[in-house]
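Reader question, answered in our methods column.
A reader sent in the components of a multi-part assembly and asked whether the whole thing could be modeled at once rather than chain by chain. We filled in our standard form and ran it. Here is what they sent:
COMPLEX SIZE: two components
ENTRIES:
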Amino acid sequence: MSESSGILYVGLDLGTSRTSIAASNGQRATLLSYVGYPKDVVSRKLLQRDVLVGQDAVDRRLALDLYRPLAAGVIQAEGPLGEKNLRAAHDLIAEIVRRAKPQPGDLVYAVIGAPAQASMQNKRAILEAARDSVDSVILCSEPFAVAYGVDMLDDALVIDIGAGTTDLCRMRGTMPEDADQITNTFAGDYVDERLIEEIRAFAPRAQFSKEMIKAIKERHSNVSRNAPLVVVDLPVEGKPLPFDLTDPIRNACKSIVPPIVDGLAQLIASFDPEFQPRLKQRVLLAGGGSQIKGLDRAIEEEMRARLGEGRVVLVEEPLYAGASGALKLAEETPAEFWEKLK
Amino acid sequence: MPPFQDIRPRDSGRGLFTPAETEQLMRVEFERSQRHGMPLVCLLIGVDRLSTLQDLYGRDAREEILIATIGSLRRITREHDLLCALSDDRIVALFPHAAPALGALLARKLLEAARDMRFEREGRSLRITLSIGVAHNRHKEAITFDTLVAVAEEGLVVADSAGGDRFVETELYQLVEQQRRARELEAQRARQSGAAPASAPAQASVVPGAPPVRAPKLGDTLLDVLSGMGVRVDDPDSLDKDSLTRLLFRLQDERAPIANTELADERRKNDVLERRIAKLVSQLGITESELKRIAQLKNIDLGIASIYRDIQGLGGQDSQGERKREMMAEIFAANFQMKREIEARNGPKA
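And here is the structure of the entire assembly that came back:
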């Protein structure tokens, strides 16, 4: 076999908060979706690099122009920062593909998950950002990739809670159409904002940054009524003081449940009545937001209250469910399709 | 037995007798009740999560909460009832001439009063709950004041460990009294032999001339377990098979909703983990066979990029193959159209 004929298939979940990759050589990696560039010559000399990606970029953000190219779920290619966002997305994809460790000469064929209702313009931006890092690329809807990964192709509802968007997708045995998909922004970032509001309301003197709140949320998120006490130190005029954040965290995390069930109700109500009960019993919860403890049960309870019944199943690996599904799709795509998309 | 003798200056600020004074008064009151055959009830009260609240909102908040709790207690007590704060901020209350049933009634009133209390700290409303242990002197084994307080203390511990906001009336008089007697005998033996008495409760031992001390039997252990579960048994002798079965069923009914929730949570976690393990085991098996196959093909290099295709992909027959091909054709068509649009705008990829 010649060196240039190896094909590395990759599935990419390009998310607002995290970008994950699963590759046909067994490699998997995940990165925070942040890209930073040294602010000036001094920081360039200090950091010894032109581009920092992921946790590195967040850790050294004070010396960097920091970009979150996929804020709100899509590449922000328009506006004053459009060019820079596109460049950041380009560098992010280049780094995550590098972490899949392609062999020299391997052709890299990628399936990339995009938000369910991404506009044509957004999709073009993703394709342009991926152009230099992969040899052939296919875009598909993120929740579809999740469902494909676990073979739930018919009579199922997928909830994919990311940082920027929550995607809901109805699987009915064919490619989901626009009417089968709903995207809203009640996702991880929204929870962060709600948590900030809640903390400001009862601890106005506490000092914190968005990153701190995000870290607190990721560590303690829970919607259960019997959630353990969450006591967190936050600085007040420079001195760390303990705060009981149990209720603020629960309230903030629970705030996404009603909009999710609104979306589910909409997708269920417009489905064939004969199959509606089956649809309610096959709800798949995925994405980083699915790691909120007790969220599956909270959605089930809300579904029971509003729709009479509901059963929610968590994906096994929230971080890689989208990437694994996209990889599966990549591996099963006929070779001639890849050739034509080169 | 809680340390009454530990007096702290701020106790006087709460308007109660000092612990030493109150203990003496309580002992006298207990002896009087025993002598005249009058009923008496003892409550031991603790504020739930008090130390955490102090950590969060400061010592002043702790004081305010304790004073408010004592205030509530005063409102439901009579002039001649006795109240005292112990060294660990728990409060002991003795109600002379009070029937055993009154203990539960008073505890309920206190719990309700605590739930209605409102404390504002840093713009936030704090909810206060209590744990209460209840004891009375009508039990045949409640023959000393120390036993009475120890039983109330057991109730408080059970109430607190069950999550607080409740009262528990255990029936551990027999066990506590046995332990007290055993300690006395141990002390007596130590005095006779000139050794220092052991501080820990002694095991059953035989001292010449002294009545033998019975070790807790199965029935006592059962009562202990039941009371630990918050089940009150009025007459231990009446515990036959039927009544025990009824008791356990009742307990099961009460606990079912909580247990079901916890069980459902654990099942969900297990389900996710089991699916993950099954997948990994399956992938490992395929990996091994794939590596064996590649090892046999010594002269053909398929490239490292290909070996995981079967492991992570479909591999073999797929019952949904036809449907998937149709879906892929649709995905391809949409992507091909986009590619052409981009090329028309930017020119073909180099």
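What stands out: Confidence is low (pLDDT under 50) at residues 5-12, 196-215 of chain B. The radius of gyration of chain B is 34 Å.
Send us your own complexes using the same form.
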